[in-house]
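Weekly modeling sync, notes
Attendees: S.R. (lead), two postdocs, one rotation student

Agenda item 3: backlog of single-chain predictions. S.R. asked that every request posted to the team notebook include the full sequence so nobody has to chase files. The rotation student volunteered to paste the first one in as an example of the format we agreed on. Action items at the bottom.

Example entry:
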Amino acid sequence: MNPTNLIILFICLFGSYYGVSRITPMVIRIATRNNLMDNPNNRSSHKHAIPRLGGIGIFFSLVVGMFVLQGYESGTTIISLLTCFTLLFLVGLKDDIAGVNPITKLITQIICAGVLAMTPGFQLDLLNQVFNIPGFNAAYLIFLLVPAVVNSFNLIDGIDGLASIVGITIISTLSIPFLIIHDYLFFGICLLLVGSLIAFMRFNINQSGLKTFLGDTGSMIIGVSIAALVIHLLSYDIHTFTEQPIPFKHIPFFLIAVLFIPIYDTTRIFIVRIAKKQSPFKADTCHTHHLLLFKYNFSHVKTSLLIGGFNVFFINVMFLLSLYTNPFVLGTTLIVTVGLLTFYFYKITKDREQFFASENIDPEITAIKKERNTRSVALLNKRISNNTHHQSKKHAKTNIYNILAKFSKIW
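Predicted structure, as returned to the notebook:
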């Protein structure tokens, strides 16, 4: 890497960090003066009104950073990305201030998918070459992939630090192939996003001073950025991957591992809501991060670090398997992981429902109230543990079930 590239990439990382660090406090003060706040309700884990316009600083840092990177690109890639960022920024801003119909957000996401699909470098050429299905163009999958990733990332933004930690993990991982291939435009975009999220996280996990939430303004921008990075990575020619340590046929499995946390949580919560004959878009407290808060009595930051740590661990496991095994082993690993996690969260859900039923209380309200009082949470968990122990004595379980239960508790 020559010194010029190094300087430009250095500016992207630290410039975006500095930009968000300077813009976000101003946004917080303006939002506070104008009462543009997220007021606590029966689902909220915060006690006081907090601004949720943290995505504004990220948006403007990305826009400025794109102009710094324009020397690496001679086509329409930057224009297309800025178009997507701007559309989702405007819709997200309106949603954070006054609310937006979910259909409006979905239509905007589909428009962004169309913008990317018409841009060279976002054609999913690798999938076309790997699967080689006659009459099928993988570019159509963009219209599924973009809304899926954007909404998945939006839905995991439920506790302090989680969206930032997961976003940093995903984007940092995706940046490595771009650096190996010498695609400095997209490597620079990754640095812009990582620098912005690190700066934002300072204000998101802050409990005593200036604090803000990412809001739809930020979560949808980060989501479409991750979708664009994944689509671009799947749009290289097969011969490009001769420089990559992972065989090209294993790339789709590895990318599923990278996106596993938001995709798994969203898929699981949609299935749970539909099984309860509820709208899949109905807000509740059944996300994986809510269940972990309930189970372990962790703070938001510790829970976010736990989920982020698992994300890093799983990415590394799938990376090693991608180097030394075959697609069958990769697919089996994904299926087994999904099965174990589903069993684990099902058990926590049942414990929680059992406690709420025994106390004749509203789970949606209590699940949040307990987070506000550490002492209460400890008491609840102790009572749940005693309840579960009593039930295990009353109903004898098989040896296999006991082994699985112990494994899930250790996990």
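Discussion: group reviewed the output briefly. The radius of gyration is 22 Å.
Action items: rotation student to repeat for the remaining queue; S.R. to check formatting next week.
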